[in-house]
Amino acid sequence: MTTDNPQGTHSGTTLASAVLERLKSDTHLALLSVFSSVASLAIGSFAIYRLIQGEFVVAMFDGLLIAVISSVPEVFTDRVERFTFLAVALQVVVFCLVFALQTSRQHRQLDVMANRDPLTGVGNRRALRREIAARAEAARIVGECAALALIDLDNFKEVNDRHGHDAGDQVLVDLARIVKDTMRTFDSFYRYGGEEFVLVMRSTPPEGIAPALDKFQSAIHERLRGPDGPVTVSIGAAGFKADDDPGQWLSRADRALYAAKAAGRDRVCIDGD
Questions:
Q1: Positive/negative CA dihedral, 80, 81, 84, 90
Q2: Cα separation, 231 vs 160, whole angstroms
Q3: pTM of the entire structure?
Q4: Is 269:260 a contact under the CB 8 Å cutoff?
Q5: Which of 10, 83, 184, 203 has the most CB atoms around it within 10 Å of its CB?
Q6: Using one digit for the tens of pLDDT, what is the confidence trace for 182-205?
Q7: Are 168 and 121 in contact (CB under 8 A)?
């Protein structure tokens, strides 16, 4: 059984009607409403942006600023003006929140589309170029050691020809998963094209390249399977040299990969060995 509250409903309706009538007849109040909308939009937008970025203290300060403005007696001459300001401010802040969340979601989606390989979920060639340039710059400025490895599936064309592209795609996805499971959290992995991938290893001196890649080879030998059984990879690697540019660095790794293929596949070759 429900109980109506005609007194409360009547009070709310009366206040809303009073606000509308006042806005129609009071130019000052109408201008105040416009001002409150603009102010709330500006302050509320900053508050929402700070909240999304995790800056909770600044977001609370912006929200408090709106509350203080609405509570200062000198700003509003009566309850109708204060109610108008708060109502408009609330609507604008809600709109800003929805807009900010939607924009943030779309930005994340665009980032994934622009920088991720849609099949394997690892970085794409565009993201690889940016990462190699960043690692080269870090090596020059602070002397950070870095290495990159080109990983190429052996006889991958046979998998596609004999079992179709769906089977080949599954091998690519499985390889990406194995490498991501094995690599360190601060390393990064990219699909360079076709069945070729690039692993960028930060803080890896020349003497650390071979042990790291032996670890990847062991994981791949143990886990990577195709329709006909185990699938192997050839790996060519190169540490960064002071006189390298990103293109030269990648080319040296590519030459090492070619050497691994020429030597019989399923092996690691490191530039300079």
A1: negative
A2: 13
A3: 0.64
A4: yes
A5: 83
A6: 999 999 999 999 999 999 999 999
A7: no
